């Protein structure tokens, strides 16, 4: 088994790009995926899930140039978990997808 995530969705925000020494870049954004099902009454229920996504290097550069809020994209990556302490000293946990490949779709 392999840690692999594939998502097709829309960028929920314009990416936040950070540049580091040596020219390496980091892109942060959210992706919204939509799903629907019928409830017990036969009514269609739409459900949106939000995913936190990060990309490094060349992939981050592609995101910086071509991805804006609402853009439909497909990503392939891995699921990661990390934690940090906020400014109040409380431990916070983050689950995010680290992108290895991106495909620009649609609008």
Q: What's the helix and strand layout?
A:
Elements: E1 5-11, E2 16-19, E3 25-38, E4 44-56, H1 57-66, E5 72-85, E6 91-104
Parallel strand pairs: 4-6
Antiparallel strand pairs: 1-3, 1-5, 2-3, 3-4, 5-6
Overall description:
Strand 5 and strand 6 (91-104) form a beta hairpin. With 107 residues, the protein is mainly beta. The chain has one helix at residues 57-66; strands spanning 5-11, 16-19, 25-38, 44-56, 72-85, 91-104. A five-stranded mixed barrel has the order 1-3-4-6-5. The protein has a single domain (5-34, 46-104), classed as Nucleic acid-binding proteins (OB fold (Dihydrolipoamide Acetyltransferase, E2P), Beta Barrel), CATH 2.40.50.140. The model has no long low-confidence stretch (mean pLDDT 94).
Task: Kindly list the characteristics that best describe this protein.
five-stranded mixed β-barrel, OB fold (Dihydrolipoamide Acetyltransferase, E2P), 107 residues, single-stranded DNA binding, mainly beta, 6 strands
Tell me briefly what this model is:
This protein is mainly beta and 107 residues long. Helices cover 9% and strands 62% of the residues. It has one helix at 57-66; strands at 5-11, 16-19, 25-38, 44-56, 72-85, 91-104.
Provide the spatial order of strands within the biggest beta sheet: 1-3-4-6-5
N-to-C span = 34 Å
Instruction: Specify the CATH architecture.
Output: Beta Barrel
Q: What is the count of distinct domains?
A: 1
Organism: Flavobacterium laiguense
GO molecular function: single-stranded DNA binding
Keywords: DNA-binding
Protein name: Single-stranded DNA-binding protein
